[in-house]
Amino acid sequence: xxxxxxxxxxxxxDILQKAEPDKYRDARLLDKPDIQNPAKDIGxxxxxxxxxxxxxxxxxxxxxxxxxxxxxEVIKKKYGTGILRVxxxxxxxxxxxxxxxxxxxxSLFNLIEAYDNKVKKLQSGNYTIYKxxxxxxxxxxxxxxxxxxxxxxxxxxxxxxxxxYVYVYSQPMLYMIDRQKKVIQKQxxx
Length: 190
Hints:
Layout: H1 7-19, H2 21-24, E1 28-29, E2 35-37, E3 42-49, H3 51-57, H4 68-79, E4 83-89, E5 95-101, H5 111-123, E6 132-139, H6 144-156, E7 165-170, E8 173-178, E9 183-188
Parallel strand pairs: 3-6, 6-7
Antiparallel strand pairs: 1-2, 2-3, 4-5, 7-8, 8-9
């Protein structure tokens, strides 16, 4: 049975096919990892990072994204304990409406947490491992400093299995972090 198609995975595949058509032309949506191109021996897992964007919209971006205790304290005081509804700005001037349960704040990932979570899953043995294993992360709002911090984190990490390329997409920009060469490339996707 084919897995149910998720819109974010379809969008990631479309972006990758525009960015690197030869590499991803024959890729398909599957599961574990989400996008696979067996002919080129490539697998891509897809995830997203919302925490930095939400803090920026709430004008709480002066608080460290790693200090959940302080973040929750301020959010509960200002917005209560129910559902936090925000509109995240996209670089193309559109808005993405998001509802977040305050009780589940801990499940929102910043970029580094999103990466680490997926690296842990890559180690689990539950994923098809390819010669090239990549990660695609959606972020809402363009924060190049967070992307540079993620790259530095990736270059330092040493696990048995790691992602070869990490794509970070903040509409309309795609950042490609090459773990081996330790470089970040930036490409506008239209």
